[in-house]
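Predict structure. Chain length: 179.
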Amino acid sequence: GTAGAGDAASLPGGIGGRTLPRGFSGLLGAARVSNPLLRAVKTRDQSVNNSTAFVDAEDLSFKVLPTEIYRISVHLMYTSGITPDFKWTLQFPTGAIYNGMITGYNTAFAIVSTDQAENSSEAQGGLFGARTVLVAWGICVIGATAGTVKIQFAQNALEVSNTTLHRGSFLQAERLLLM
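Prediction complete.
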């Protein structure tokens, strides 16, 4: 078909031979549709101070297609003091189902692996201001609604000190094509 004609439009590369709803190509662009790997990399440090309110992690978001399945990978590098610690959330479009795991330090400074569900927040330990890493991975089934996957972060407890998400942190998704 032709983009803009009828109820569906075929895009170069397609998605498993399926067509996309009219106008959807403008949401992601044909280049994203033909490449099943999505990656967002943090290009500069970003800090929060004396705030437990989630903020969007600049650069760490991308658009996903409806009814698709993605393998999600997260690698966050952060610094925070002992008191504020670090909390974060992985947000998905309405109707998405995510099951995943996190490995990192908990607020008692023990290395742990724990389950994670869609749109839930997780508190991680801040190791005396030292750069700390957490990794998360899982599978997400996007519902009927396309939208944005994004990372948000904040301090877990108020403190007048910086909690920083560092440059080089990344969020990645690989679209799994079902045969």
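Summary: The longest helix spans residues 30-34.
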